[in-house]
């Protein structure tokens, strides 16, 4: 039987993040002490930074951040973020502004929120359409259409976008696979080679695992495509081609849906450009898949009813 870890002596109810850090400082390694100093100086850091970003800011690793969290009485980074939020008083209007975004106000009506949403999503689509390199998209589409194997990587919020692209490509006859777990992704990257295509999707382009997977795939000979919101990001720098999916005014952290819509626009363009490369194959495979699922779709006319 697996033994449960003993609760930390710094996890007593009623103690905030700062109090726990102060109490645990004498027990911390030099690397953990750097994390503690960073959080004492900026208590909102866990709300603003991912675990990877916090580790980079403190000059350490995500694994060390996780150990730090456990030392001060949290099971991991997400519970630490909850504790930091509680300390800062999430219900305040000031916290709303920093966590949700300046486009919204706690007192806004449903209509005002809807109007702000439409504005944010429209801006994301327009920015993506303006900044996305058409020639790069055509080059990526040609590589995918001529590839015998396409691996698509997406972690966290980008995993759903990666799955959407894989489903579209697979339906038009492409041998496409999606990987959202780093070990499986690295395994797929290691066995690629010339003629394969690897696509990495990341809103920030700074996710360490994503950079590692796409970089490894490229090193084995695959043509690497990065889809990010920042053409200067580390992920873009390891790719052969970069497509910008840019959401200028993030309104919801950490899972900004306007950013996802920007990514969806980019992958939809990529999918259609791929479909154009072999239009006969595209129409044939789409017709075959439509016919396969047709018997499972109910008629719009309900049984027992007749039209007048």
Automatic annotation (TrEMBL):
CDD domains for the chain: SIS_RpiR
The name this protein goes by in its record: MurR/RpiR family transcriptional regulator
Residue span, HTH rpiR-type domain: 15-91
Sequence ranges assigned to domain SIS in this UniProt record: 140-280
Species of the source: Gryllotalpicola daejeonensis
InterPro entries: Homeodomain-like_sf, HTH_RpiR, RpiR-like, RpiR-like_SIS, SIS_dom, SIS_dom_sf, WH-like_DNA-bd_sf
UniProt entry keywords in alphabetical sequence: DNA-binding, Transcription, Transcription regulation
Lineage of producing organism: Bacteria, Bacillati, Actinomycetota, Actinomycetes, Micrococcales
Recorded superkingdom: Bacteria
Any Pfam family: SIS
